[in-house]
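Table 4 source record.
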Amino acid sequence: FLGVMPAYSAADDALTTKLVTFYEHKKDSSVPSHQATVLLFDPRNGSLKAVLDGSVITAKRTAAVSAIATKLLMPAFAEVLCILGAGVQAYSHYDIFMELFTFKEVRIWNRTKEKAVKFANSVNGPVQVCSSAQEAVTGADVIITVTMATTPILFGDWVKPGAHINAVGASRPDWRELDDELMKNSVLFVDSREAALMESGDIILSGAEIFAELGEVVKGTKPALPEKTTVFKSLGMAVEDTVAAKFVYDSWSAGS
């Protein structure tokens, strides 16, 4: 797949297009499944100002949005973090979550255990490698799903009441990471209603009702409800790439 994600932000005076390729590897590959490039233009005349590594920007902006959702939606006393998946997004999420939050325990599970072990040995901090997704999830306060799953790998009867889930994988209308029980018995937040209803198999196939966009919570027009079991379905928005690319460009231009 080749995706084109254009966006303009008047507030940031930024115009970008992200080009992203997605190949579903049937076997483990040294080449990432997703690769991306961000083109930053001058919004006054359309001149190309910079070509940026879109894979890095995608990884970091996605994790940053999950962190915002977690800050707003996680239970008051969150001690156990669980990550399902051990790819690029697992690393970027781990990095920012360790920077912003204090968890007493971090667990990881991956279909290929070797990748989970490699992850645990690569990051700065103790990570427990779990032999099953259920083992990783049981008792966790915050759960991050960053897998290539096409059928559910996280089930509602495993999830601790009041936990918060960041569902980042399953970005196609026929793919799932979360089962119907979890989707229907959680308060559901999304980055974009329009995108979620067209692209998220977890939402489309379960028929779960969207409670709010994350932006509505940030603005204060909808409550966060951290006392409830919450799911944030992340699909990504082009404007996130735009803001991130402009931030990187401005920092580079300033010589910092």
